[in-house]
Specification:
The protein is an alpha+beta fold. It has 2 helices and 8 strands, in the order ββββββαβαβ.
Length: about 110
């Protein structure tokens, strides 16, 4: 897992993810999380998380929440990423758009 803090308001986390099937990926898939506490053109903090490979994004999800929930959601998503980095995930969860978790107090938009 690689964690980069670009500023007080911007955090980027990358971790590997392992599926039981590797179909559709160019290179090793990984999870890319970008958390922006005060994003431009939005009123609320957002966290963008996606599964991608060397060439493209396979599946992306954006979480929108209030400032009070921001730290808790980042903490939970990083823990979720660690769990997935240490295990093997069924590829059908990605195909069925059932990979990313829901959290109380924030909206989740799938892209």
């Amino acid at each position: 897992m690689k964690i980069e803090k670009a500023s007080n308001d911007l955090l980027r986390v990358q971790s590997d993810i392992f599926f039981d099937k590797s179909k559709g990926f160019t290179g090793n898939p990984y999870i890319d999380l970008l958390a922006n506490k005060y994003p431009p053109y939005r009123l609320y903090p957002s966290i963008s998380i996606c599964v991608r490979d060397n060439k493209r994004i396979k599946y992306e999800c954006v979480y929108i929440m209030g400032v009070n929930e921001f730290g808790k959601v980042i903490h939970e998503l990083i823990n979720w990423m660690v769990d997935h980095e240490n295990g093997i995930i069924e590829y059908r969860k990605l195909e069925n758009h059932d990979l990313f978790p829901d959290y109380v107090g924030c909206s989740r938009w799938e892209c």
